[in-house]
Amino acid sequence: MEHLDLIIIGGGPSGLNVAISAQQAGLRYVVLEKGVLVNSLYYFPTNMTFFSTSKLLETGGVPFISHGEKPTRAEALEYYRRLKEFWNLRVNLYEEVRSMSREADGGYVVVTTKGAYAAHSVAVSTGFYDTPRLLGVSGEDLPKVRHYYADVHPYIDQDVLVVGARNSACDAALELYQKGARVQMAIRGGEIHENVKYWIRPNIVNRIKEGSIAAHFHTVVREIRQNEVVLEGPDGVFTLKNDFVLAMTGYQPNYPFLEKLGLHCPAGADRIPDHHPESLETNLPNVYLSGVVCGGMLTNRYFIENTRDHGDRIVEAILKRLTG
User: What pTM does this model have?
Assistant: First the structure.
């Protein structure tokens, strides 16, 4: 079994950020990623444009070059490939963490689908995009229900219900309408969310006003059937003809996984995993959080650009312990 200073769980932007800080400090480390490099970004919509500028997404001193001020998904994937290559980061892809146990010396053993590693410290950088918030209704497990939207092509000339009123829902609804799907939206509140991207919100609002996209406000999904959906709105229960449901209702940290590692995630609405606000150390000694997972259910609190110092903060704390 290999012995390291630091194991980083998650190969997204935050995990790579921690890896760069560890490499600069001369720490022995490995990044364990269950999927592809920056796995969450890979599953973003094909034509997505980031809200942040490329400058704000830069890390590790590597310039982020994009054609416009705000980069696309494709440009982000290229950037993180170059970032890994520039720093020659040790990232093990397609290696899923199965368990973590504390050793008598205070370190940890992490077991994966491909082996086991021992380390003084662990950084959990797992984000939240892998775990959608479910509707919790009958029929949600039907193949026609999707919690991720990648490409418009499968939905052309189909009756599609988009559930939600934030960025992902509005992006999907607009592209579906523009490419020839018959789009309706089920929105729990009374309007498109105020924080939708400023170049998207007027467009979706106008499409709804003109009737190109039918929006059902103050409405929730009650049941999903093979060829229709059952909704409930201000005037009661009604059904819509339907081929696909895109439940763009947001995402959350993988709490079962975090708890399996031994991290304390308090009950309540926010469910922010316990961690020190400065060192980012969790309830487990020498185990740290980095990136958006620090916000728990408050998924709009942390972004790539305001967590770029997490790697340095974690490595600083580790070095203090190692040099004692």
Answer: 0.90
What class does CATH assign to 2-131+251-323? alpha beta
Residue with tokens 């592209």: 175
One-character DSSP codes across 76-103 = HHHHHHHHHHHHT--EETT--EEEEEE-
Residue (of 221, 124, 206, 132) closest to 168 by Cα position: 132
> Is the CATH code 3.40.50.11030 the one for domain 134-247?
no
Estimate to the nearest angstrom the gap between the alpha carbon of 239 and the chain centroid.
32
Match 């890896």 to its residue by tokens. 19
Q: Do domains 2-131+251-323 and 134-247 have the same CATH topology?
A: yes
3-class DSSP assignment, residue 310: helix
- Give me the residue label for tokens 């995630």: 265
Rg of the chain's alpha carbons, rounded to an integer?
21
For tokens 């950084």, the residue is 123
**What confidence tens digit (pLDDT) does each residue in 184-234 have?**
999 999 999 988 888 899 999 999 999 999 999 999 999 999 999 999 999
Rounded Cα gap, residues 240 and 160, in angstroms: 10
